[in-house]
Design goal:
The complex is a heterodimer. Chain A is an alpha+beta fold. Chain A has 23 helices and 19 strands. Classes of the chains: A alpha+beta, B alpha/beta.
Amino acid sequence: MTARAKPHPDRRAYALLIISAAVTLALHAPHLPLWLPVPAALLLALCWKFRRRGRRFPVLARYALVLALPLGVVASYGTIFGRLPGAALAVGLLTLKLTETETLRDARIVIATSAFVLMSALLFGQSLLQTALVCVALWPLLTAAMSLEPAAGPTRELMRGSASRLILALPIALVAFVLIPRLAAPLWGAPGMQVARTGISARMTPGAIGQLLIDDRPAFRVGFRGPIPARPLRYFRAVVLWHFDGRSWTPGHAALPLERLIIRDRPSRYTVTLDATRQTLLPALDVPVATAPGTLSTAARTLLAMRPVDHTLRYTLESATGYALSPQLVPAERRLGLQLPSDADPRARALAAQWRARYGTDARAIVAAALRMFHYGGFRYTLAPPPLGRQQVDDFLFRTRAGFCEHYASAFVFLMRAAGVPARVVAGYQGGYANRTAGYLLVRQSDAHAWAEVWIPGDGWMRVDPTAAVSPDRISLGATAAAQTAGAPWFLSGWWIGFRNRIDVVNRLWDQAVVGFDALRQHALLTQFGLDPSRWQSVALALGGALGMALAVGLALALREPGKRGDALATGFQQLERRLTRAGCVRRPGEAPVAYLRRAASSLLPPAATTLLTLAGRFAQLRYGGTQPPPPLAVRDWVRRARDFRP
Amino acid sequence: MPEATLARIDATQQRLAHALAQVNQLLLGKTHVVRLSFACLLAGGHLLLEDIPGVGKTTLAHALARACGLAFQRVQFTSDLTPTDIIGVGIYERELGHFRFHPGPLFTELLLADEINRGTPKVQSALLEAMAEGQVSTEGESRPLSPVFTVIATQNPLDMAGTHPLPDSQLDRFLMRLSLGYPDEAAERALLSGVDRREMLRELTFQLTPADLVDLRRRARTVDTSAAVLDYVQELLGATRAHAQIRVGLSPRAGLALLAAARAWAMLAGRSYVMPEDVQAVFPAVAAHRIQVQHGANGEVLAAKLLAEVSVRA
């Protein structure tokens, strides 16, 4: 063999590669540290600039970047293992690969890597939007792959071709989705749980819920058997916090007996679809009558999952909204319900002592006094409260007087305990968006809430929401609406939330049908068709049969018109003809292509006419010169020149 | 191909161009027909000229023969012409003591068969057989004709009284049917005021030799026909078979003839491959007399119509 220059991707293929890499980068950008996506995007732009000037990327700079990337990843995450560091590394390497993409082989590597990195974007979210974006991102990628082929036609043709291939692949993907045996938990469930913790946590520190309020993702959805309860009644308990150390509220460690529940009205039945939280806390409407299969109850009748919820979980419950919880307080409960850090917040304690002196043991009167103070004492509701000092409760009650549910719940319970009224903090969700048409309730992370429960003799634990005393809107409209006056960012503005709430019904379907399609439901579905999913032979047979059928259909489509498909020269000519027709030179009936081009040339001015005549001559040679098909490279060249021609 | 051969072929092509120019000087304003008749000659086909008398049929035949350096014979077909009149006859020669064959006008290189439709079917079929076979059998002996043997037959389409029109099967033996028609005004004026055509004919110089013609014919056969051109030819053939006004469409042999003519036409243009334009240029001449039209239709008109109806795919 003679020495030949290795084939290298042309400018269009390179541009498509850059676009694919940029799209991949964009899909990963939301969960990457800022130092990565921005320089990577700049690097892509730089690659394109170098390429256009026909220059190579400086080797030394490339080596420096290759060294810097893992260092940066380690600096950000402390490791290069795991989901996020892995994604950061992959995205970075993909970008760097483009700086050295010279040959066709390089380009193919870029395409394969892009596809892999794109797929890994699904590890960070499987919402309908995310999945659709990944699918759409495959389009430029596939177009780039096709543009590397020797006989690649014009770009529009390639884009149409890759789109049709993607659509053809859909049925195959669907068959594989239904039939390929799935693990009990998704692959992406396990690693990285420390990083992606969302939802209510079992520890409440001022500021922690503040972040959640801005997190607008859906937390869970509730389908009610009966009517959806009114908004002020929609308190979902997730965790009861007993212990306060002066800064944080935690559940505490004491072993308590299950609290007795007296049901006062008909419990309502509902099903919760909980998105992955990577925790065991399960929100339930205040207050669940019994546990659901696979869940545990705490003493305070909040629910726990057996293990962290790392994929969408569904459970059905019954809850009573009218009830009496633990009408007789056991000593351990009383002790915990009055626990306070030994020497913190003297001013709050003094205030509580005043109330105690004035109202004695009348718990209701003390509660009313506290609520009055919150209502008239110059407190305001805000999502961005000023920071608090060491004497947290004092600082809040007597200095800043600004905060959200967490501050109010914390201060309120502190005051109650100091006044001798057993009290505890409850964290959970409140409100939600009731989609009346689809008949379900959507609760977002921004609906996270904290409130208090005080023990009233004879009535048991009663829910008291001090936030409602400060900002009734928080309860009647929702946290974001309540915060409107404080100047919320645009994505929390009313119409946007409203719009997203309305289209959430699509997400719900997606979650139920696709993300929630787990091993159990697969088993149920396949059994209906007489397949035994536990026998791998039957699944393999079905999978093979379905894929074979899909392949046969695809082949039949591909072979439908042999020789006529993929004729880049003909397509190129037709495009040229379209352009000439638009310019006013219409091909006569029966007029031969070359004759037509020559006639068109005769009506043009010299430079264009000469180009067109050359094109006509070249076309004649390619199409008619010789009995063999024309060399693909020459055809590509002609197509490109024809594309560049402007009459 | 060695360089010397290439150079010789180039020289031959040059002389071919000269020959074409010479004939065009004689038949003013008839470049297309003259070119077609050259193509016919180069494709190794026979030519049927259909026209009224006096428009230059004989001049064309004569000029072709002169320019190509071919031996020329002319036979006026009449109702009393017999096959032996054209083939030749064996005559007993006493001195030699056996029959000696006296070849007829058929044993020439270019034969002008004037008013072929006035001959009896017997003579016609004898001639057509010779055209098809390239040889004649007489008295139990087959005698080969010249390797460049070509017939130019003429007939008058209007004066049909007492004629024997050629059957369709025999029309097929002619590669092309052409008609010269009246010259345009300027050409006619030049004709009237110019030198006598017969004198000009005598002054015509040989540009080619029969050997050149054999060479050119071989070369014409090697002109490339791509799949795209074959597609187009097949579509044209198919269109003649499906057309409402055509009783019998073109046969596969007609398709071969069409390709051969198109190859010769492409070679005349100095190309080594056929384009759809070449096929279109020769199509009416090759196809019009071969398609059998419904009553009242005209082959030429239909052929032109078909060219406009069948679109050429890129």
